[in-house]
Write a structure and sequence with these properties.
Length: 116
């Protein structure tokens, strides 16, 4: 049983899953919305919420933590460019998941993950 087990495995090894979530976060920061499966969207949502909450306080330590999680200086700079002023008045709920229906090829349930 999976009592008190947090997170989804997504059918990948730990390194591959970490890389997948990192790439999804970078794409979401760059494009402000991404289309992916519901499972992946639900997996990346808490991670990006934590990054956006961290980015609201624009300190050198926050930038260091964000860079370690993203591994992309461009994405980190973009995050700190829009997050402090856009999310200053919000305490949470920076993202939205909208279900889109099944994918044509394999009928996987698709979702749109977007920044508010």
């Amino acid at each position: 049983m999976r009592h008190q087990r947090v997170g989804r495995k997504l059918g990948r090894s730990a390194e591959h899953r970490k890389s997948l979530l990192r790439n999804l976060m970078i794409e979401l920061i760059e494009h402000r919305k991404i289309q992916t499966t519901i499972a992946k969207a639900k997996s990346v949502q808490p991670e990006i919420e934590n990054l956006l909450a961290l980015a609201r306080e624009d300190t050198p330590q926050a930038r260091k933590i964000a860079l370690s999680r993203l591994d992309s200086k461009e994405a980190m700079r973009a995050l700190f460019a829009f997050a402090p002023e856009q999310y200053a008045g919000r305490n949470g709920g920076f993202t939205r998941i909208t279900k889109l229906g099944p994918r044509q090829g394999d009928a996987a349930e698709m979702a749109l993950l977007e920044l508010l």
